[in-house]
Amino acid sequence: MSATTPARALLERLSAAAVAQQFAGIARCLRALPALAGERKLALDTALRLTQYGQAMPAYIVLSQLRRELPNDAEVCARHDIERAYGMAGLHDQQGRTEAALAAADALLRTVPWHRATRMLRASLLAERGEAAASVEEYRRIGEFVPGDVIAGSARLIAMQHDPASSADAIADAHRDWAARHMPQVAPRWAASLPHAAPDRPLRIGWISPRFFSGIVADFFLPVLERFDRREAKHVLYDAGGIDDAASARFRAAADEWHRIDELDDATLCARIRADRIDVLVELSGHSPGNRLRALAQRPAPVQVSWLDYFHSTGTEAVDVLLSDATLSPVAFAHRYSERVLTLPSGRLCGSPPVAAPPVSLRDGGPLRFASFNRINKLNDDVLAAWSRILAGVPGSVLRLKARGFDVADERAYFLSRCARHGIAAERLELLGYGTHAQALAAYAEVDIALDPFPFSGCATSLDALWMGLPVVACLGETMVSRQSASLLTALGLDELIARNGDDYVRCAIDLANDAMRRHDLRTTLRVRVREKLCDADRHAREVESALRAAWQSWCRDELKPEHSP
């Protein structure tokens, strides 16, 4: 048997890092590539593995070096040209030429239908256009070509939740199927008879997220973390993202301990968590990008919880508890959860009052204006059809939409064509780029009613609109994500703004448009109600603490099992 060469050793490490989705390990391998020509076949196989597991740029780097060493090798040159063609499609996308990006992707897929990165790009472009069903189909095709693709599998779950054609039961089944396909074998639950299984002792609680920086996690978790009672528990943060900003500094200051884990594989991460003696481990990402959900299969902590930055059951028995609320997760939907659901009395999330928000101002004339500042990928054809009926029912009204996609000429033109198909004339629309958060908040001053999309409802966007005094009309669905705005409205006692179906949604919006006195009352009182009901971080911290303590005590009593049969 021949000795392992430096090139073979590095390529084997690179391939293993690709399969394990260890991005830092991939980067380390690429820093100093040795000569690869002597391991030509392995280099080609590694490039293919990188491509299949979502690492197109590292694959291109490997193939570029191999081509420099073997400039007359037809197969090497062909594979290199494929990756270069994909790079051109990606460049079109980065430069806002969406039509050219889709055309380049389609041309490449006609030649190499197995090219995972191109299908991922196409799926993403379709999703961002509001073509949810087509995006779901692309992710499904990736699963056929690369059955072990964890990231594409999770992306499909998220795409399904944007798709009106995907039923709640189908989405729940897809989550369980993902777990069956992609989760490692789940370790047995910890024995509750261990000496440290004391129900009321101070706990050590771990929190894992790739987003401990400015954004959703900071907005909804940081004020709560800063208010936890440190006599009840110590809090250890595991940073899977490695991005530093002002919010990261606040997270580190608020944590009792802080660990960077973005370069750790799952086994090393679990060893770290066990060494830290974590009692309750809270995974904050679910199936969102950058998650470490698969590590939980090793059960590094006695109690494992999902919360915050995902909007569905994870589908895996490795997660014991999901924190939710009674509106998002009614008892009737328990069969769709793989976890035991613990509900927080005042709502699943606690908002932070927007620092950049101007004072609420009364409308000063102008046409009645509806608005939605949600991303275009939430604006499916069912939503556009409902909005067309609302505009037709309120003559002279306009619809203001604000999203980053409208800064892209191709996306703006395509969206206008979709609206035209639903009978929405361009002159009834105000399409604005999103800009800064402060600009978005200020833009509500000229708006009367916020229209929530469905089935993927707003959360932070709805909270912003409510903070600025706007009533939000929402349509209640059967998934968590389709009930986010409804949860906020329920907490505010505004159940009359929650529609039960599409016809009810249209009627509710038109009735509100014709009730100026009701809109005035809401505009002048909503901010106070939102501050009291949705932004009380002290109360929310106590509720989260109580829920995690209850989960721990259930484990101590050996009762930590789902309350339903899958």
Structure, explained:
By secondary structure, this protein is α/β, with parallel strands linked by helices. It folds into 3 domains: 6-166 and 178-182, Serine Threonine Protein Phosphatase 5, Tetratricopeptide repeat, CATH 1.25.40.10; 203-352 and 540-556, Rossmann fold; 369-534, 3-Layer(aba) Sandwich (Rossmann fold), CATH 3.40.50. It has 21 helices and 13 strands.
What is the average per-residue confidence, as pLDDT, rounded to a whole number? Answer: 94
Could you tell me the number of beta strands? 13
| Category by helix and strand content | alpha/beta
Low-pLDDT parts are none
Indicate the overall shape.
globular
Q: Architecture of the largest domain, according to CATH?
A: 3-Layer(aba) Sandwich
Fraction of residues in helices? 40-55%
Task: Report on the biggest sheet.
Answer: 7 strands, parallel
- From the N-terminal CA to the C-terminal CA, the straight-line distance is 50 Å
Blueprint (SSEs and pairs):
Elements: H1 6-19, H2 23-30, H3 40-52, H4 56-69, H5 74-94, H6 98-111, H7 116-128, H8 132-145, H9 150-160, H10 168-182, E1 203-209, H11 216-225, E2 233-239, H12 246-254, E3 257-260, H13 266-275, E4 280-283, E5 303-306, E6 321-324, E7 340-343, E8 369-372, H14 381-393, E9 398-402, H15 409-421, E10 429-432, H16 437-443, E11 449-451, H17 460-467, E12 472-475, H18 484-491, E13 498-499, H19 502-513, H20 516-534, H21 537-556
Parallel strand pairs: 1-2, 1-4, 2-3, 4-5, 5-6, 6-7, 8-9, 8-11, 9-10, 11-12, 12-13
Helix pairs in contact: 1-2, 1-3, 3-4, 4-5, 5-6, 5-7, 6-7, 7-8, 8-9, 9-10, 14-19
